[in-house]
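Worked example 3. Consider a protein that binds iron/sulfur cluster.
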Amino acid sequence: MKVEEKLALNKYAPATQAHITVNKGLCADCDLRPCVYGCPADCFILKEDHVSFSYEGCLECGSCRIICPKGALQWAYPQGGFGICLQYG
Ligand code: SF4
Ligand code: SF4
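Given these inputs, the predicted complex is written out as structure tokens:
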């Protein structure tokens, strides 16, 4: 099974507000863009000359918060029980 197929099995309670926001002004000077390679859920996608971010598939692992060299991310867990479902029953 490919990673994409495994990710498609995840269940989410979709939040209407992003729990991670990106200061794109700081991204402009980021050469290596480690978020693109470090996010296990492909939430950061390199598009030509910029990085596109979507929070919807986030696994809440916190990797991007640690590896971003510019401190460009405002990061918090989704509030109100939204986000990825990690427990069942
Ligand atoms: S690692 Fe941080 S600064 Fe660099 S592109 Fe990603 S979010 Fe922007
Ligand atoms: S917390 Fe993890 S899964 Fe979510 S965007 Fe950051 S690196 Fe990706």
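Take a moment to read the result before moving on. The chain has one domain: 3-84. The chain is about 20% helix and 20% strand.
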